[in-house]
Design a protein that fits this description.
Aspartate Aminotransferase, domain 2, about 475 residues, about 15% strand, seven-stranded mixed beta sheet, dopa decarboxylase, N-terminal domain, five-stranded mixed beta sheet, Aspartate Aminotransferase, domain 1, homodimer, alpha/beta
Chain lengths: ~475, ~475
């Protein structure tokens, strides 16, 4: 394809995207397809002829879009917000257009240094001290795995340089809470710790936050049993209820055993753009690493996950490779991001942040976040004051966890079935989307506010839908 | 930013990209900046005001583009080709525009199922049997780590479900060659094996391919010493010289000890689009996993790395998480790609392949690859027939490794300095870019043919530049 052919097709595609976004509220939130439906719209064999761009756009409309769950729809309240502000989409497009190869400083100095600047801007915007060094990863799952590997190597004095984890005599232990994201346990398993060496620390029964006294007890028991506490992952905003593990207390407990502390603020990191929210991660300056996702509530299009570490030299000692074919005259003065994580090659992801910060600006982002916090509080009030409804967890952020108790029904399998049924009825209709999750006493439904175009009237509409759904569900 | 504001800015950006690509040959190949130069063009503090889109485009021109090494320039012969065909750039733009959230089948059925279809089309196009299941990852480094984790768990009967690698009594060993990519050793270290348990198998002194007899010897020695051979990584196209490890022989050796075989065909996978090249990975059907990068020579814009595994159930048993907040009514019938790799969330990367295959078509891609193979052969001929020059490795693919011997100079530190100096002189000029690498007897320079717009006359020009450079280098 020549640049002129690209120009013509590109203009059509921009219009297609603008039209799609402008009409996002007209499409069902949850894709109305069954497994296999989309696959069946494509040939089983690879095509032997080419298509016109017009035909390809028509194919997007007929074969792809019906299978897209519209997370930019204002009635999407599932999982967490996955905003893709159009400013950041432009940054993503610029990144594709520049088509850099991020394998070394030399292969794209701009890719490296704009990433440095954006990580530093974001550090300042979230109130972190200048002792933190940041880089962009695909997801917080990967960031957590990187942190866990650093913790492993710190606890073993860089065992990777000798016998690896298999050469370590005393078992290393990882601590987190049962409310932490599933990626924490996954990272611990991939890092080689094993299920037997993951300690799930009890949470407070009301706040669902990790109980630091229980953490201290478990660590003392493990040390007495000849084990080595290696890593604690504190969730700042759990996925279920956005519970806030008490970072300061956790850091204090961990410091007694020289344990690495990773703060998983995937969701709540965005809130730290608001000074009034920063008390939620009090103590974070005592942690060893932090990850959070601008690609959630902040609205930088996926993928854009920040990982900050305090000891970047240690990180590089674990991740560095310096093969002859990647050496360059720039030497030590240049940052080599390949030595800060798992993949060698990287995209020019920092442009998404640059575009969003330049075009939308921080103040507008902050105003949107405050709108969402107020909307969540309003929604919490409605639920709290309605008969049969319960707010199941503190609303620290923008997610409201709810349950409806039909007459005579209490916690148990019957209520679980009922709860999932009414949420699924709303989802299946395409009119709104909510996700369900479990608490120790059963299933609840999460109303996660924060899509860029969600306003108060959308929440009013949702509240009406929910009240209808619980009454129509048998 | 509203859809209408996006539309206006998007059209400007498309023109900017088309103009940039049309003039790529006018820009220096290697960015003409020093470490810190680009960083210094940005404010130290995050901006408190917003910019117009015009001002942002001007900033791209003034502060970003000067720091971009132009890997799409026809005179780029460094590393490996990092083509970004404009058809795949359009696919990337469509992906950004659709802005799907890839965390489960339900969150974007189309993202999941188009990825399934594209992986299957690519499987067929590279002549693999239908016993392989594919998924898209960011890079082959990540693919290799995933493979290594599967190998680790297979060799230990899923130790992650109990004591992890720390509970394993007999050390597991990984085998690869010193010519394999640096990401192989990195993956082994991250997976916890430790340097002491990485065996670097000798290569053939002429072809630089792994010697399978040496592999058999090492495995037998390790077994005799009470160790457990767990994984062999065979490079199909090493990074230095595109050497081809003999997959069939390696599979035969590995099968005697039930060892997992991962084929790293990051670069050479593209060649398998040509039936006449498939002998280069003879025996691949006996391997357990294969990764290769359409984002290199094939020209799908980075990031797009394919990972095929034979035992997808095993992969899922190792990578699966099924927390309550991700469960959905679609259940087991739907593919959940989060259980096929490390990150939970994924972009809609398969659109890049769909667009490239639909718009450019396979035949045009094949014709371009054949042009590049012929150009590399032509270049090899020039070098072989010129006084003082030597081709240092077999040209199995599109990379020609060369050295120039000034009068009286033989292998040693003096020649190494000279070799790096003339390559750096060309690179620093911005007229062309070559990367250097080492062989057992010293440094050489790699001419890696295959940029989309590189034609014979560019190679003629490069050959002239090289002859001038060696005569002008002291």
């Amino acid at each position: 394809m020549t640049p002129e052919e690209f120009r013509e097709a590109g203009h059509q595609l921009i219009d297609w995207i603008a039209d799609s976004r402008a009409s996002v509220h007209e499409k069902p939130v949850l894709a109305q397809v069954q497994p296999g439906d989309i696959r069946a719209r494509f040939e089983a064999d690879p095509p032997s002829s080419t298509s016109s761009f017009e035909a390809l756009l028509a194919e997007l409309d007929s074969s792809v879009v019906p299978g897209v769950t519209q997370v930019q729809n204002p009635m999407h309240f599932g999982w967490f917000p996955s905003n893709a502000t159009l400013s950041s989409v432009l940054g993503d497009i610029a990144s594709s257009g520049i088509a850099s190869l991020g394998i070394s400083w030399e292969s794209s100095p701009a890719l490296t240094e704009v990433e440095e600047v954006m990580c530093d801007w974001m550090r300042q915007l979230t109130g972190l001290s200048d002792t933190w060094s940041g880089s962009i990863h695909d997801t917080a799952s990967t960031g957590c795995l990187v942190a866990m590997l650093v913790a492993r190597e710190r606890a073993t004095g860089l065992s990777q340089n000798s016998g690896g984890l298999q050469g370590v005599a005393e078992p290393l232990v990882v601590y987190t809470s049962p409310q932490a994201h599933s990626s924490v346990a996954k990272a611990a398993l991939l890092a080689g710790f094993g299920w037997d060496n993951i300690q799930m620390v009890d949470v407070d029964p009301v706040s669902f936050a990790m109980n630091p006294d229980k953490l201290a007890e478990l660590m003392a028991q493990d040390v007495a049993a000849g084990k080595v506490p290696a890593c604690v992952v504190a969730a700042v905003g759990t996925t279920g209820t956005t519970a806030m593990d008490p970072v300061a207390d956790i850091v204090e407990v961990a410091s007694k055993h020289d344990v690495f502390v990773h703060v998983d603020a995937a969701m709540a990191g965005t809130a730290m753009l608001l000074p009034e929210c920063r008390h939620l991660w009090d103590g974070v300056e005592g942690a060893d690493s932090i990850s959070w996702n601008p690609h959630k509530w902040m609205g930088t299009i996926l993928d854009c996950s920040l990982l900050y570490v305090r000891d970047v030299d240690l990180l590089q000692r674990i991740m560095a490779t310096n093969p002859s074919y990647l050496q360059s005259p720039s030497g030590d003065e240049a940052t080599q991001y390949r030595d800060w994580g798992i993949p060698l090659g990287r995209r020019f992801r920092s442009l998404k942040l640059l575009f969003q910060l330049r075009l939308d600006g921080v103040e507008a982002i902050q105003a949107r976040l405050r709108r969402d916090l107020a909307n969540a509080k309003w929604f919490e009030d409605q639920v709290q004051n309605a008969d049969g409804w319960k707010v199941c967890a503190p609303v620290d952020l923008q997610t409201v966890c709810v349950r409806y108790y039909p007459d005579g029904m209490t916690e148990g399998p019957e209520l679980d079935t009922f709860t999932q049924a009414w949420a699924q009825a709303i989802n299946a209709s395409g009119a709104a989307f909510l996700s369900s999750s479990t608490l120790p006493d059963g299933w609840m439904v999460r109303v996660s506010v924060g899509v860029e175009v969600t306003e108060r009237h959308h929440l009013e509409q949702l509240w009406k839908l929910m009240q209808e759904a619980v009454h129509q569900t048998p």
